[in-house]
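Before the break, one more example. Copy the sequence into your notebook; we will annotate it together after we see the structure.
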Amino acid sequence: MEGEQGDGALGIKEIFAQHWVAGVRGGGSGTTVQVTLAPPRADGLELESLCMIVENVGRRARLQKKKDDVFVAHFRGTANLTGGERLAEDDSISSPALPVDLGKGQAVIVYRLGGEAREMTVDVQTRPMIPYPECPPPRRPC
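Here is what the structure looks like once it is written out:
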């Protein structure tokens, strides 16, 4: 993404989504969204969650701080699940409805600034999927 987007209080330097799938049956899949804020960051800014369409369903996930200006949201997927297997608990927040109507390639960032709740719609770049390889075969004793 070139340039910055944001409303002044929440400047976004880069935001991208990347789908992944495990190379083994039952290994799962998901989508990771990384948000990098543009410095300087406003005092009292707290990122809470990110809402977007994942696997044709509106979902919300908590934004976790990874570095000073880098936050990540994780969405679990349904690919590679065996017959009766259920999705494990993740950081998704139960949300019957998203705050706004979202189009393809868009997300809503929910944040607080000075204790006041705010939302901002942003465009999300999608990077190529990561197909994790299968586990190596077990070693045979010599």
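Residues 84-91 have pLDDT under 50 and may be disordered. The chain has one domain: 5-131. Try to locate both features in your own notes.
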